[in-house]
Design a protein that fits this description.
Largest sheet: 7 strands, parallel
Strand content: 15-25%
Strand order of the largest sheet: 3-2-1-4-5-6-10
Distance between the termini: 57 Å
CATH architecture of one domain: 3-Layer(aba) Sandwich
Length: about 350
């Protein structure tokens, strides 16, 4: 492992992984490959932009010629694929983009990687492939029951990685992360969305009764988990990177308001989204057996995250314009109006 291509490396979790790898492994060459769509942000990588072992290339994982070029030009031997459309709400509005990146993109990365003789492929996936879990915790061998176009597209990408391992002998591993939060997350997901809206004293549109349960994982712990699986995971195997910190969405929302000193009256219960899973939960025992450990409990991580958004308005205020506002209007304006 010497020349590592990190696709989707300007996104939220991908950029945390890039920053981690550049700092921890000065002898590795880290090449970030990102299309820079709405959620890809080069500002996420400012802290490593001048490092000798870091390079950035703009491109689309679903464009074969671009993938082939970057694999060849940088003599890539390892691929870590974070590139994905990743927001359930958007997948309901526009499933096509998710198939393009999360399925076709994975196929092209695997196929070009095979042709170029890469030695290791890590597919970064999600707990949402398991679907709604009434009780207990999902294990890596459990069946997939995805309930949104996003979850289905990620499951398809995983199955393609497995097929390339079985059929072509590709050394592929898979990680499945739980709900991840932390600095630099695009402000459409619950924690940054509600934090930034509350800073401006705007209403927080909480789906349904707010008693959906999510398992929360701090982004730096997630990045270190992918690093651990990349180095020590067995070929053909999947590993749950679980926060094992389950919380009701309404409790997370209330805690954000408490941390900001804002009133609970900002919460607005709005009509639920289609096919909304009630509960996710995974066991991280298999990843722990590789040596992965989490450094952040949920309360510590959430406090640090909320403080980061308070102190870094320069980062998110310029995002919440244009396309973001159009999406907000499409997704929430009608729901909020219905509650007035």
């Amino acid at each position: 492992m010497r020349n590592i291509l990190v696709t989707g490396g300007a996104g939220f979790i991908g950029s945390a992984f890039v920053r981690h790898m550049v700092a921890r492994y000065p002898n590795y060459n880290i090449v970030c490959f990102d299309k820079l769509t709405y959620a890809g942000n080069i500002d996420n990588l400012l802290s490593v932009s001048d490092e000798a072992n870091y390079r950035f290339e703009r491109g689309d994982v679903a464009t074969r010629s671009a993938v082939s070029r970057v694999l060849r030009d940088y003599h890539i031997d390892t691929v870590v694929n974070f590139a994905a459309e990743s927001h359930v709400d958007r997948s309901i509005l526009d499933p096509d983009a998710f198939i393009h990146t999360d399925v076709v993109g994975v196929y092209i990365l695997l196929d070009e990687g095979r042709k170029h003789g890469i030695e290791r492929f890590c597919q970064v996936s999600t707990d949402e492939v398991y679907g709604d879990i009434e009780d207990g915790a999902s294990l890596e061998g459990d069946r997939f029951l995805p309930n949104s176009p996003y979850a289905a597209s990620k499951a398809a990408g995983e199955l393609m990685a497995r097929a390339y391992h079985v059929t072509y002998g590709m050394d592929a591993v898979i990680t499945r992360g739980s709900n991840t939060y932390g600095p630099y997350q695009y402000p459409e997901k619950l924690v940054p969305f509600f934090t930034t809206e509350a800073i401006d004293d705007r209403p927080l549109p909480l789906y349904g009764d707010g008693r959906q349960i999510r398992d929360w994982l701090y982004v730096d712990d997630h990045a270190r988990g992918v690093d651990c699986v990349l180095h020590f995971g067995a070929a053909g195997q999947a590993y749950n990177l679980a926060g094992e910190n389950q919380r009701f969405n309404i409790d997370v929302t209330r805690r954000i308001l408490d941390l900001l000193g804002k009133p609970q009256s900002l919460i607005r219960h709005v009509p639920d989204r289609e096919g909304h899973d009630r509960r996710y939960a995974m066991s991280a025992e298999k990843a722990r057996a590789l040596g992965w450990r989490r450094d952040f409990d949920f309360d510590t991580g959430l406090e640090a995250t909320v403080r980061w958004y308070q102190e870094n308005e320069w980062w998110w205020r310029k995002i919440k314009t244009g396309e973001y506002l159009e999406y907000y209007q499409q997704q929430y304006a009608g729901r909020l109006a219905a509650q007035e």
